[in-house]
Amino acid sequence: MKNRWFGWLTVSVSGVLGVASEAATAQSSVSLAGTVDGGVRYQTNASASGGAVTTMNSNGYFSSNKLDFQGVEDLGGGWNAHFLLESGFNLGNGQFDNTTGTEFNRQAFVGVGGNYGSIDMGRQYTIAHDIVGIYDPFHFHFTPLIPLTVASDGTRFNNDVKYKGSYGPFRLEVENAFGGVAGAFSSGASHGIGVNYSSGPFSIGGLVSHRNLLVGTTYQGDDYYMAGIGFKFGALNVSGGFMSEDQANAAATHTVTHNAFGGLSYQISPAWSFIGGYYQTQVSNDKASRRGLSVVSLAYSLSKRTILYGEMDYTKYKNALVTTLNPTGKNSQTAVTVGIDHVF
User: Fold this and answer.
1) Are 2 and 11 in contact (CB under 8 A)?
2) Distance between CA atoms of 295 and 300, rounded to whole angstroms?
């Protein structure tokens, strides 16, 4: 998912590598950073009986809780080698933010970069995450609430090789995640390409990707498309987009899931900021069913590293999506969250 990194605590390590009488030097650094986000959330209709719940058991609301180890080495000639190991955690109980106990579940990759872009290998954010994050009005704040890459082409891929580079106002990303299935190169694999253009107050971008997912005992295709557009008017940013996912599941009715979203952010003052957005989910074979999510938030910066925030969201489910997308079976939910977000 995409968050702010501030105040890197850097430990510099310099060494001289020698082979016989010849020696070469390289400057490298390892940085420790992260985010600690604590919020209290109240939500109505949190159970089938209609009861409300108050909790702070989350992986971070405004930003995702994480601990990052990042390394960069200057290779000369504008090139560098780099790595990132990123672990997520639940602030409410101190546990990993996943049920499998995976230590670096958020990201774990190594790569090289230079004037022509970078190539990274490992577990990392998908192109869908990177491009959607540009046009999401919240830019992936409040990720536990907002249904974008979580319900689409995935937030992260394992075994992923990704290229990303900038050419003037253009940004290009290409990736392939290996499936690792013997005798079948495409089985379990994912690949895609994304392009974004930004110039002055205007930006536009999109991507296409394809996955081969294991459904039962067979691998079946999944096609994903996304397009977004944004404008800046001084302190006001307006953005939105549309995404479509076509999963060809032979054992079920063929459906295409559509997600449309849009909203605005406004920097009220150097300390105060407002964001509002709307997100709608619909399936092709049941156009009368939909989920609509409205979110507004207000944030106050105590410093460059610490933010106080509050948000309110309302979700409305209609027809079949009441049961397929809401475990409680209720047709609406209202929630309020307040908290503090600190980046180090």
Assistant:
1) no
2) 17
Q: What is the pTM of this model?
A: 0.85
Residue-wise pLDDT for 186-212, tens only, equals 999 999 999 999 999 999 999 999 999
Residue 257 contacts residue 290 (beta carbons within 8 Å): no
User: What is the distance between the alpha carbons of residues 37 and 59, in angstroms, rounded to a whole number?
Assistant: 8
* Nearest-angstrom CA–CA distance, 173 and 225: 14
| Distance in angstroms (rounded) separating the CA atoms of residues 274 and 182 | 51
Count other C-beta atoms under 10 Å from residue 243's C-beta. Answer: 26
Q: What is the distance between the alpha carbons of residues 287 and 318, in angstroms, rounded to a whole number? A: 10
Domain positions in the chain are 9-343
3-state secondary structure of 335: strand
Higher-confidence residue of 112 and 321: namely 112
pLDDT at 259: 93
DSSP E strands: which ranges in the chain? 9-19, 22-43, 53-55, 66-76, 79-88, 107-114, 117-125, 156-167, 170-177, 190-199, 202-215, 218-233, 236-247, 255-267, 272-283, 286-301, 306-318, 332-343
Question: Which of these CATH numbers, 2.40.160.10, 2.60.120.10, 3.30.930.10, 3.40.50.2300, describes 9-343?
Answer: 2.40.160.10
pLDDT per position as a tens digit, 248-263: 766 677 778 899 999 9
Both tokens of 292, joined, read: 């609509």
Phi/psi of residue 317, each to 5°? -105, 140
Q: What is the mean pLDDT of residues 284-299?
A: 90
With pLDDT > 70 as the criterion, what percentage of the chain qualifies?
90
